[in-house]
Write a structure and sequence with these properties.
4-stranded mixed sheet, mainly alpha, binds zinc ion, 2 domains, 5% strand
Length: 248
């Protein structure tokens, strides 16, 4: 247990460092993710406007041929109408001619409004593209910020994570589980007793209990007020010495 409580104190020191590193990154990873999403949305929007413009241009460049084809069709049908043998055929061709006329009217209307539409879409695209560029710049900036920080952090992170794995390997599973359970509600799950108080919640610990802890190393003590695992100052001193020597 003596070794176990020392290992817990080491684990607490490592986790405090890892928490600090994590805090320094702050909201950056989340910020990058939401900016990525904004860029994606803005890019889709501009793309859809571009497609509509393409369609309009396609219409404009083909309208002449389409009009001509409809016109030819109508002329041909009109000629056929003179050669019908009965009313039924006449009616059928009339219906076809009406249909062609309607197609021409629709095409005419499309062409009539296409210039204004084109103008509106172009203006819209310009705004969307500008917004997309701003969003991309913002994303790039945040990405660089994050990269810079994680670059510095990676070495340290690796060191602490390696050390954490070594400590955990030597720690009893049940003790580790208890530590992790406490950590779900207290960031510092194992704390040192300082000036006869729990350094997590500052409630006083009777000196007799502290004595008991020193002579009863095979028992795990927790703070009766906050539930954190407690260890005595001599153990903290050992951990501090390890930090000093660069072993933690
Ligand atoms: Zn406490």
């Amino acid at each position: 247990m003596n070794e176990q409580i020392t290992l817990l104190a080491q684990l607490a020191a490592i986790d405090a460092n890892l928490d600090e590193l994590h805090d320094e990154l702050g909201d950056l990873p989340q910020d990058v993710k939401s900016l990525e999403q904004i860029v994606r949305q803005k890019s889709e929007l501009a793309e859809s406007t571009r497609l509509q413009l393409d369609e309009l241009e396609h219409l404009k460049s083909n309208s002449h041929i389409m009009m001509q084809e409809l016109h030819d069709k109508e002329v041909k049908l009109s000629e056929q109408q003179f050669q019908v043998k009965n009313n039924r055929e006449f009616d059928a061709i009339t219906k076809e001619i009406d249909h062609v006329k309607m197609e021409r009217a629709v095409l005419d209307e499309k062409l009539r409004t296409s210039a204004v539409k084109h103008e509106n879409l172009s203006a819209q695209l310009e705004i969307q593209q500008a917004e997309l560029n701003v969003a991309r710049d913002n994303l790039k900036e945040k990405e660089q910020e994050l990269e810079l920080l994680t670059g510095d952090h990676n070495e340290e992170l690796k060191k602490f994570i390696d050390h954490r794995l070594k400590v955990i390997a030597k720690l009893d599973d049940s003790i580790e589980a208890e530590y992790e359970r406490i950590r779900t509600f207290h960031r510092e799950a194992a704390v040192c007793i300082k000036r006869n108080s729990c350094s997590g919640c500052f409630s006083a610990i009777p000196s007799q209990r502290i004595m008991e802890m020193k002579y009863n190393r095979d028992k795990m003590y927790t703070c009766e007020n906050c539930g954190r695992i407690l260890y005595t100052e001599d153990i903290q001193a050992g951990v501090d010495a390890m930090v000093e020597e660069g072993n933690l």
